[in-house]
Amino acid sequence: MISFEGLRLEEGQPIYQQIVLHVKRGVVSGAIADGDELPSRRILSAVLGVNPNTVQKACRALEEEGLIASHAGARSFAVVTPEIIAACRAELVRGGAESWARAARGLGLGLDEALELIREVWDCSKEGEEP
Amino acid sequence: MISFEGLRLEEGQPIYQQIVLHVKRGVVSGAIADGDELPSRRILSAVLGVNPNTVQKACRALEEEGLIASHAGARSFAVVTPEIIAACRAELVRGGAESWARAARGLGLGLDEALELIREVWDCSKEGEEP
DNA sequence: TAAACCGTACTATGCGAATAATACAGTCGC
DNA sequence: GCGACTGTATTATTCGCATAGTACGGTTTA
Questions:
Q1: B83-105: string of b/e by CB count within 10 Å (b at 16+)?
Q2: Any B CB within 8 A of A107 CB
Q3: Closest-CA residue to B10 (of B18, B1, B21)
Q4: How many Cβ contacts (< 8 angstroms) between chains A and B?
Q5: Where are the beta strands (DSSP E) in chain B?
Q6: Is any Cβ of chain B less than 8 angstroms from the Cβ of A40?
Q7: Do A123 and A117 contact (CB within 8 A), yes or no?
Q8: Structural contact between residues B68 and B27, judged by C-beta atoms closer than 8 angstroms
Q9: CB of A23 within 8 A of CB of A32?
Q10: N or C: which end of chain B has fewer CB atoms below 10 A?
Q11: Residue B65's CB: how many other CB atoms inside 10 A?
Q12: Could you tell me the distance in Å between the CA of residue B90 and the C1' of nucleotide C24?
C-alpha cells in the first residue's frame, strides 16, 4: 500500500499537484514499487483532510501520465517502469537544478559560488528531516 | 528608469508575484540602483500586457517590503540599501538552494551527485540567455 | 447472490487571482 | 493656474482551485 504519511500539504500550490508530486517522489526514491496499491479515493481524502474530488483530480493526472492504472470498481495500483522512473527523476531533480542554476546565474553568481552555496545548505537541509 | 524588458510572464504563478520577483532580481544583480524610477502603473501594465490593478498590487507589495517608495501623484522610485540587497539575495538564492537541496536529498541524491548535477546544468543554463 | 466497497461523474458553492472600467486626489511642466 | 500626468481606490466580472453533496455502475468478498 502506498503511504501518504509523509505528505504535508502546503498552501501556495494546488493540492492535487502536491499529491502528484508526492507520488513521483515516491517512485524516484523507491518508496513506491510497481503494482503497489493506492488507498481508495475516499480513504485517501479522509487521511489528507481534503475533498475526494481533489484526490480524484490528482489520480486522473497520474493516470494520464501512466503512473497509475485504474480499473473502474477496483483499487488503483502504481505502474513503475525504468522509463517512468527516469522520466520522474529528470523532471524532479534535473528540472529543479536547471531552474535554480538559471536563477543563480541571473543573479550574478559564478559556478564556484553556486557549488559552495549548495555545499553550505546541504548540511543545513539535513536538519528537520523526519526519522 | 527600471527596465521590465526581460520579464517573461508565465502562468502557474500569480503575475504580481512575478513582477515583485523581477524587481528583487534586479536589485540583487545590480540592474536596479537606489533612486531609479519605475514606469508608471499604466505604462508598465501596457508594456506587460496585464491589468493596471495587477501592477498596482505588485507595487503595493514592493512598498510594504520597502523596496520602492511611492508619493501619491508622483513617480515611484526604487529604494536600494545594502540591507535590502542582502535580504533579497538571501531570499532568492539561498532560499532556492535550500529548497532544491532538500528535494534532492529526499530523492536519494548524495552531495557529490548533487554538485555534479549542478555542474552539468550550469553549462546547459548558459544557452538561451538573452544578449 | 447480496452487501460493501471501489472508481467515476455531475451540479452547485465559495474563494482568491486576474481582468475590466471607472473615479478621485496629488504632482509636475508649461 | 491649467492640463497632462501620476498614485490610489472602488465595484463588477471571469476563471481556476477546492469544497460539498449526490448519484451511477463495476468489483470484491463474505
A1: ebbebbbeebbeebbbebbbbbb
A2: yes
A3: B18
A4: 99
A5: 68-69, 77-78
A6: no
A7: no
A8: no
A9: yes
A10: C
A11: 16
A12: 40
Q: For residue A65, how far is the Cα from the chain centroid?
A: 13
The closest nt to A17, taking CA to C1', is D17
Residues A105 and B37: their CA atoms lie apart, in Å, by 25
Which helix (H) or strand (E) segment holds residue B102: the answer is helix B95-106
Per DSSP, the three-state class of B101 is helix
Kindly identify which residue of chain B lies nearest to residue A116, measuring between CA atoms. Answer: B115
pLDDT digits 0-9 by tens, A78-114: 999 999 999 998 888 888 898 889 888 878 888 999 9
Q: What is the pLDDT of residues A95-105, one digit of tens each?
A: 889 888 988 88
Phi-psi region of A94 (alpha: psi -120 to 50; beta: other; left: phi over 0): alpha
User: Who contacts A33 (Cβ-Cβ below 8 Å, separation ≥6)?
Assistant: A78, A80
